[in-house]
Predict the structure of Ethanolamine utilization protein EutJ.
Amino acid sequence: MRRVLAIILVCTLIAGVGVGCKAKAGVVNLGGIFPMTGASATFGTSSKNGVDMAVEEFNAAGGATIGGVKTTVNYINEDDTGLPEVGASAAQMLINQDKVIGIIGAVMSKVSLAIGPIAQAAGVPEISPTSTNTKVTLVGDYIFRACFIDPFQGTVMANYAYNTLKVTTAAVLYDNGNDYNKGLAENFKASFEKLGGKVVAYEAFTDEAKTVDYKAQLTVIKAANPAFLYLPNYYGSVALQLKQAREMGLNVPAGGGDGWDSPDLVKIGGAAVEGGVFSTHFSKDDPAPKVQTFVKAYTAKYNEPPDSMGALAYDAAGLLLDAFKTCGSIKGSDIRDAMKNTTFSGISGAYKFDENRDPIKAAVIIKIVNGQQSFLTTVNP
Ligand code: PHE
C-alpha cells in the first residue's frame, strides 16, 4: 500500500512541473520490434526470448529507482513481419501510444533503417541487437546497435575463404532489395579481391521473401566455375539456394554471414547446407563461464539453446536497462547519454561504443557439421 501511495505522489509531482506522467505508476514501458512471423520468424522468436529474459532479471533485481520510486519495466513486443513499413508503424505506436522509454530492435537492417528516423525524431533511444548494415546507426545519436558491422564480417569470411579454405575464386548471389544482403555482398567482394581473389560471378535477385527459384542465377554462376559460393542472405533463402545449387551439381563449399544463424537453416536445407561456414555473433559452445551460465538458463527456460539473436537481444535489452538504472531517469536524452558512456558487460562481450554508437566486437565462425552448428573459431577485430 505504501508503495502505491508513493508512486501516485511522484506522478502528481511530475505532472505539476509540466512534464506529464509518462508511465503507469512504478512501471514504465519498453518496446521491442522483431519479425515474429514471415520468412525470418526464428529471428523474432529468439530475439523476444532474449529481451524477455533480460527484463525479467531486471525486474527481479528491483528495477530502477526513478525520483525515489522503485520502477519496473513492462515489455511490449511488436511484430514487424520482416517489412520496413510494418516496423515503422510499430515504432509510431510504441512511441506515441505506449510512451516507451526505449526500443529494442529491429533484427533486419532494412527494418531498422525504417524505424530509426522515427525513434530519432521522437528522442527515444533505440538499440538494434543484430542489424549489421553500416547505415543503421548513422541515422542519429539516439540509435545504437549491440553487434559488429558488415564491413567486418565480410572481411572475416573473405579471409577465411582465401586463407583457410585456400580458394582464389568465388561467386556471390545476393538480394539487391535489402541493404543487409547488398552491403555484405559488396564488403565480401571488396575484401576477397583485396586479398588477391577473383569474384567470377556476382549475381543478384530481388526480395528473398518472395523468390523461390534461383536457377537462372545459379546457371550463370556454375558456368563461371567458382571454387567458393558466398550467399549473404537469410537462412530461408540460403537453404533453397543451396538445395538448387546442389541439384545442379554445383558442389563447391559455401559460406555466408549472420543471416544463416537459425536452427531452421538445417531444417529446410538438410544435406545441401552441410559443410557450410558462416560468420556470426555468438556461439553457445563458447566455453566462457558467463556464456555457459546463460546458455543453461536460456535452455532451461525455452527448451532450446540460444542462437546469436537470443544472446544479442539479451545483451541489447540488458544494456539499455542498465543505462536506465544508472541515469535514474525516464528522459530519452538521459538514457541516451548513459548508453553512450556504457561499460556494460554482456554475454557476447564487453560494450564500449565508438563515435557512431557501434561497438567493437569479435565474430565467431560456425560450420554446419552433421546437421549441427559447430564452433570453429573466434576472430577479433
Ligand atoms: N545482420 C542481419 C541484418 O542486418 C540480421 C541478422 C542478425 C540475421 C543475426 C541473423 C542473425 O539484417
Q: What stands out?
A: The longest strand covers residues 69-79. The domain at 9-148+287-350 is CATH 3.40.50.2300 (Rossmann fold). The first helix runs from residue 2 to 16.
